Amino acid sequence: MPSPSEHEALIAAVARNRDRAAFARLFDWYAPRLTAYLLRQGAEQALAEEIVQDAMVTLWRKAEMFDPAKSSLTTWLYRIARNRRIDLMRRDRSTPVEPDSPLFEVVDDTDLEGELDASQREAAVREAMRSLPEEQLVLVRLAFFDALSHSEIAERTGLPLGTVKSRIRLAFTRLRRTLESGGVVEAR
Q1: Eight-class DSSP state of 104
Q2: So where are the chain's domains?
Q3: Disulfide engineering: 179 pairs with which of 29, 59, 73, 184, CB 3.0-4.6 Å?
Q4: Over the chain, what is the mean pLDDT?
């Protein structure tokens, strides 16, 4: 398990140099944990994955705004994800948001760091990515390593926005199934 100071060094590398390897390590560590958190909070799988993507893109684009004196990186990312989910729920008028909902609870990051060994997970994710069809892999790379929004990917590739979203969602579904069947991620 990486220490908080290792994570701070990685986000500093992203902020200073747009270090893709540092971002990949942070993504590999936090994406599954953020997804699990959002699922526990009641988000559907596709929505959780979309929110995690938004949170990680925010990390890439705004890494220089992270201040370790104000919070841990874990708390910062979980707050971004939680706030994004709240924003989406407020826009969706069909889902009432109750003030005492667990969604508004402050995240306790003391137990969020421990589930999987980062190096094992990183290897498993890289192996699972090899199973993706090229049409999905290209879009996942554009979204996470080039930090493009779905709209920007559609514009760059000439694909319809709906196709971009569905291929990324299919890629995440395939990755999740591959990781679950390999015993890497506990099945839900």
Answers
A1: G
A2: 1-115, 116-188
A3: 184
A4: 80
